[in-house]
Amino acid sequence: MKTILHLLTLLLLTGLPGVGATTNQLNALTLEQALALAEQHHPQLAEARALVEAAAGRAQQAGTRPNPEVVLRAEQIPFKDTPARDRQYVVGFAQTVPLGSKVAKARQTELQEQEVRAQQLEVVRREVRKRVHTAFATALYQEQAARIQTRIAGDFTRTIALIKARLTAGDAVPEELARAEMELARAEVEVRRSRSLQRQAASALIATLGSTELRLASLAGNLEATFEVPTLESLTVRLAEHPELLEAQAAQKVNAARLELALVQRIPDVTAEVLYRRLEATRQNTLDFGFRIPLPWFNTGQGRVREARAEAVAAEARSRSTQAELQKRLHTAHAELTTALANRRALKDDILPRAITVLAAVEARHAAGELALDDVLSARREWAAVQLAHLESLRDVMRAWAEISGHLLAL
What we know:
By secondary structure, the protein is an alpha+beta fold. The chain is built from nine helices and six strands, in the order H-E-H-H-E-E-H-H-E-H-H-E-E-H-H. The strands form two sheets. The protein has a four-stranded antiparallel beta sheet with strand order 2-3-5-6, with no helix packed on it. It is elongated. The chain starts with a helix and ends in a 6-residue tail after the last helix.
């Protein structure tokens, strides 16, 4: 059975772009493919879907009426032997009839509970998508950061080769070579650190997809994707349809339905009986009719009514609290996205071009013998810092957008 399930999983994976036909390795994984894999494999989504199905089963069951009962009874059986004619045998049916629309109200309560589960599924789906989006941004950032660090180490390698040539020609001193080799050693440390962070980010991304059998080989994406900041007004309008708020409102309806059900459950059910009786003494066949009605002397259902009223008040309070929390998160996410986009714009349009210009000018003057090696190394460090800062700003934009996406209807 496990082998069959494994084969089915591989077949499903091969239906997605970027997944090999004979391996679970992900090549050139895009954000859209990552989201699709999470939708398919994440256990939290599978659990939420199962809970929706369970709620549907409860709703189906709550709409059924009680089954009839078969009554088989022997009466007037003494402890001592008596003639058979003194005994009586009874056979028949009994049917409990719920009063006060109990069945309809019970079904309505479970249908409202099913709606709560459906909204919980949407909440989980959006949370999973947000985590995947954030993890993908981090993994893509670490991949590109490792590429920049490798490029920096390559620049120092070429610088060392030039210095060695100049040292042979008598145009450089050994201290310059030692300084460049020291910077190369530092750069190689950063390369190893960056590659380690890249592997960790890839593992974190795979974990957010919900499958332990997948392996990430490479990513395909662009941190430079264009995002437009939606207005707070448009987001606030859409906030009314956020699944967390809809879940809280559905919970209110559930508790209101439970209160109605608790009220009608105080009405006792009636059980009707139709019995055939054989009178052995006279050899006659007779019918008995009767009703059984519980008397609510001890259990009047007041405790259930009290509980349901309190739960309804608590659900209404939770709904207000959820709305306030969503409003706060919305304002925070909007501010973070606005700031992240402004920082990205400043780094891309103002700082990064100037850092490239400065580095090119410093390297040209160093090649002409006008500047010392220290000036070149300092300019390269500044250039690297600006490159990484630009990548960080792009990552921050994607993370902020992932948070904002949770407040939008179309993710």
